[in-house]
Structure to design on (117 residues):
């Protein structure tokens, strides 16, 4: 039986605080419990959560760092409120997981919300 989107996120969140060894062990348990396709889907979901953090403060810290090469995104993240960052993160995670070809479009929207770009 496929996992619901909520359950997929719940399981993927378990991956985030683990070190490399813990992540490998969790992935191995996903393989055993859910099989190859679902385990890989959970791995991808966890990595989307790493890339587009759910917490606005973590999102801001990650995407406003001086190492971020997209200067417009850095500026947009600095301008957006926590509520706006929360919505931006939700939109980006949804796009990355369900409509990967739309990530660029969502990024342009996020920048336009902030009056950048």
């Amino acid at each position: 039986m496929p996992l619901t989107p909520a359950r997929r996120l719940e399981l993927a969140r378990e991956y985030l605080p683990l070190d490399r060894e813990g992540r490998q062990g969790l992935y191995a348990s996903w393989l055993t419990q859910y099989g190859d396709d679902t385990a890989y889907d959970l791995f991808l979901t966890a990595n989307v959560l790493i890339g587009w953090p759910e917490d606005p403060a973590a999102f801001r810290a990650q995407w406003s760092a001086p190492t971020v090469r997209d200067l417009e995104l850095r500026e947009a993240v600095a301008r957006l409120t926590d509520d706006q960052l929360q919505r931006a993160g939700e939109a980006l995670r949804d796009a990355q997981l369900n409509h990967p070809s739309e990530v660029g479009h969502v990024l342009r929207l996020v920048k336009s919300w902030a009056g950048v770009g």
In short: The chain has a mean pLDDT of 95. The first helix runs from residue 5 to 15. The CA atoms of residues 57 and 73 lie 15 Å apart.
